[in-house]
Amino acid sequence: MGVVLSQSIKNTITTYIGFIIGGINTLFLFTNFVSDDYFGLIQYIFSTAAIMMPLMAFGVHNTIIKFYSSYKTRHSQNSFLTLMLALPMFIAIPVGCLGYLSFEVLSSWLSQKNAIIEDYIWLIFLSALLFAYFEVFYAWSKVQMQSVFGNFMKEIFHRMCTTILLFCLYLEILNVNQLIVSIVGVYALRMIVMALYAFSLKSPVLRFNRLPNFQKVIKYSALIIIAGSVANIILEIDKFMIGHYIQIENVAYYAVAIYIAMVIGVPARAMHQITSPITAKLLNENDKSELKVLYQKSSLSLFIISGFIFLLIVLNISELYHLIPEKFRDGIVVVFLIGIAKLSDNVLGNNNAILFNSDYYKMVLLLGLGLVILTITLNALFIPMYGVLGAAYATFIAVIIYNVAKILFVKYLFKMMPFTVNTLKTLFLIVVSFGLFYFWNFSFHPIINIILKSLILVAFYGFIAHYLKISDDVSSLIKKIINL
Questions:
Q1: Membrane-spanning regions, if any (predicted)?
Q2: Is 481 contained in some domain?
Q3: What is the Cα 484 distance to its own chain's centre?
Q4: Is residue 482 part of a domain?
Q5: Residue 480 covered by a domain
Q6: How many independent structural domains does the chain possess?
Q7: The whole model's pTM is what?
Q8: 201-241: per-residue pLDDT in tens?
Q9: Domain range enclosing 391
């Protein structure tokens, strides 16, 4: 767990720096420099591309993590990685041709509620392809146990470049159309840099020898597309469907609330970069005792950290919304609902890595497919009735159901649960902290209020977590921080 915690901390710091930059972009620059309809359009383009990404990648980024450690010779590793580089093109080329031939029908359907979308549909396909190959090269790096640089490229690089582009828009160096194309260009540059880094860790040697388990690899890649798409669909389909059912500026209002709540999921994203290849290795070695230890420790550490972040957000949410334009302030309930959903994601620990890297991944596919249908159905029902709040209801219900199902699957298949007595202690700490601080407000400027309440919460939460000895890893981290 030491290596996991060490790289997870580095990844968490990197990810939060990225989220801070992204927060400045989303909460302040986009909301002031870009009109609501174009802000909504930008969110729509990249959310739709994110939905398409697992299909365009042909599941390769998951396949690399699962199978790489099972190959022991240099020749077999090179043949495997050659196949992984080629597979996405077997999807991208037919999808691109189909999209070109049916462009008129597709553009009419996508832009029937918001005509502004029509001229940018080609950017959705291109962005999805860039996202897909970035994830392939990132996975290439992760199996070499090097995730920090990739995390920097994934979380910081494109957001930092977007900040620069937004100021170029403000200074009238770019117009809004050039801004959108330039952001796609940033994603292209990110993919190229990630490829160069991945190849510096392990140079590609093209070998077209047939793998002994070729059919198993292809079958896994094809099937994992569904499972790998579930998380993306749950988190991104709401923005797509908002743009389909109501005015596209609502995507912008929803995106601000979602971005705030997504901060809670950062620790899980950071830890996943290193726990995923380790989990795959433990499964390949059939080391169930160590797997259980990793499962419970990752769950507890993430619950403690994400619980604290959840409190920081929900206890300061009213003050935070006073810092952005008033028309965005109806998203407070969205933040609460999505925040709880993201907290439930964190308490699962490395559950996703266990399911997707095990031989039982097929059993998750039917569940995932059912969940996608449920998510789309709920969004289709709730968005026309409740607007952006309806999208939040749909996402909240879908995520909670999916997470409960995944816990039960691992319990049934591996006879282990992520929860311990310390999980209950952490839940108690979160509930008590919320009750103590939610109605405690200061009469100063919102920024001062946020700082004061956050400092008090840090002291209270850290002291109680350390006093109750909830987690050795977290207590050790607290001691290190105190001794700085």
A1: 12-35, 41-60, 80-101, 121-140, 156-173, 179-199, 220-246, 252-271, 300-324, 330-348, 360-386, 392-414, 426-444, 450-470
A2: no
A3: 31
A4: no
A5: no
A6: 1
A7: 0.77
A8: 887 777 666 777 777 877 777 777 766 666 667 667 888 88
A9: 2-474
